[in-house]
Amino acid sequence: MRTVFIGAHEDPNGINSYTFNLALALKNKGFDSMAMAFGSCNNMTDYKGVIVKQYKASGSTITSLPALYFKSIPYLIKHRKEIDMVSYQTVIYSVIPSLIVRLFGMKTCAIIHSLPEDSPKHSPLKKKLMVASMKLALAFTRDVITVSNTKVQEVYDRYKKKCRVLPCGVFMPEEKQLNTDILERNGIKSGKFFLTIGRIDPIKNYEVLIDAFKQHDHGEYQMCIRDRLVIGGDVNNAYGKIIVERANGCKNIIFPGIVYGDAKAALLRNSIAYCLVSSSEGLPIALLEGMSYGNIPVVTRIPSIKEVLEKHNIGLWSDVKNTEQLAANMKTIEDEFDNYSVQGKKAREIVEQNYTWPQICDQYLEMVKHF
């Protein structure tokens, strides 16, 4: 069976990793697959052996994704006898390309990672337009996948559309020597920092995390000077500027920029806890990555995170945007790390038993039999 995954950016990090790593897991099991991505130029490259056909697209994702979907059609038609499934990474924009592809005998599906109207960065008018667009797109999309049971319920409650679940996953960390100096360069000591890595977006509530840490660092709790908060991601946007300014005056908050490869692995391997304090998530790959390295989860009480952690009775929880609860949780880890370190071990077990890409790949192969 050959699957073509369409809709990623050329950078295989963040949510793009879903596309690239599912394709890689299929390849590792002997199933042919490829990815199509948008980027800075037309190019044919690869991701760990998976062929990636890259189309040049300028502008934002809103313009690049539909351009990619339509540009991919000639290739798909030409190679239709070799392709069994075409997987689009969004529902919106994929309706017409998907219908065309189906006319030539290929199966298609579309994935919902999250509902865009949940993001606080959008105006009320833009959210209404997003909801209207999603309703129309779902009406013409036959097979829809989403990444968690809670997201399945949300999509049904809002749009009366039934979806299938294919969770996010990770590859378990390799025990290898890392070629990076990211800790030394940023004055970070192993086991002495809280970590979060991801897209710099208001829905992640980084300002709440910063305020909680600063309260912990300088206020009532007086966090030890040796501890740090590390926020990995591209802060070169409007919200990034806001959180960098919010952190001013606290030298223990570190912004190392975009991290990947060995640098990212070094941060995940050496942190004391992984923090994810979002208002909404699909099923957070970033959290699964942190857990796979044995990090204690410091999280907000939202449905998708509860789905991963709650039944296992782990995690230090706070309500969304509750700075006091979050600061208290950071203080708890600081004071009682030996008691809570067992949660890091349990977190790794949860991922190893439920959320690895080989397991997700098996679920995918079983799922597409019913499309």
Cα Rg: 21 Å
What is the general shape? Answer: globular
| Helix count, DSSP H or I runs of 4 or more residues | 15
Find the count of extended strands (DSSP E, 2+ residues): 14
User: What separation lies between the terminal Cα atoms?
Assistant: 13 Å
Percent range for β-strand residues: 15-25%
Percent of residues in helices comes to 40-55%
Please provide the ordered H/E string of secondary-structure elements.
EHEEEHHEHEHEHEHEHEHEHEHEHEHHH
Q: How would you characterize the largest beta sheet?
A: 8 strands, mixed
Strand order of the largest sheet: 3-4-2-1-5-6-7-8
Look at the structure and give the mean pLDDT: 91
- Structural class of the secondary structure composition? alpha/beta
SSE layout:
Blueprint: E1 3-9, H1 16-28, E2 33-39, E3 43-47, E4 50-56, H2 61-71, H3 73-78, E5 85-88, H4 95-103, E6 107-112, H5 124-139, E7 144-146, H6 149-159, E8 164-165, H7 182-185, E9 193-197, H8 206-218, E10 228-232, H9 238-246, E11 253-257, H10 261-270, E12 273-276, H11 285-292, E13 296-300, H12 303-309, E14 316-318, H13 323-335, H14 337-354, H15 357-367
Parallel strand pairs: 1-2, 1-5, 2-4, 5-6, 6-7, 7-8, 9-10, 9-12, 10-11, 12-13, 13-14
Antiparallel strand pairs: 3-4
Helix pairs in contact: 1-15, 8-13
